[in-house]
Amino acid sequence: MFIFIGFLIVFFSVFGSFVALGGHLGALYQPFEFVLIGGAALGAYIASNNGKSMKLLVEALPVVIRKSPYSKDLYMELMALLYVLLNKARRDGLMSIESDVEEPETSPIFTEYPRVLRDKNLMEFITDYLRLMISGNMSSYEIETLMDQEIEAHHHEHNVPAHALHVVADALPAFGIVAAVLGVIKALASVDQPPAILADLISKAMVGTFLGILLAYGFVAPLASAIERRTVASSKVLECIKVTLLASMNGYPPQLAVEFGRKVLYSHLRPSFMELEDHVRQTRTAGKKA
To answer: How many separate domains does the chain show?
Structure first.
């Protein structure tokens, strides 16, 4: 939502100011400049990326325009789920949660937390490492190293579209200059024409530079930054799970383990100590009633 608001502000600020200063929008309507700059940028993007990168970009674009799912409510639900799982494992043994981990879609524990259950990445991360904990063949240090490598791979993979768009944004002003140079060449080839015609040709050439810079810094670069922020948020939630599970493996009780996970969250999304404790207490009470 905010990305569209930002784009509208950029559009109306630039073109509205141009009109207010006495300019005519018709002078900026140069469709072949769009074709030249946009086509060159698209071709450069295709040449520098593979099919997997393009697929990641196609998947990232609809996601970035939606509201981020990594909200305070999701974190509260996630930590409540981890508390229930770790509390059951601590009370009845790790084998008691094996059926929940193997079939989370039918688990009475996981189904109580639909936000987490809908997120494929979260579910894979939680269930995979709970399986390793249940197997009992790996130490906490080995699992921590494996978690770090997976989080790094996740961050790198999901950041590929942002990196590719940043490269395109850096190239767009140069493509705008290419369009301007071609326009100047055309104008110089018509040097025998009256001054009015030459001025018109030169003004059209300058539109290329204008479009390249506007598209780069007004639209493509902000879009890349938005994808990058979403990637950071998706990695942060994995770090929260990592810290919580490792704290449990190192012997801390479930209520304290989720506190470890709370501390790694960003301040604007982190629930307070009392909020988390009240939520965990409610979860514990609901579990006893069940």
So the answer is: 1
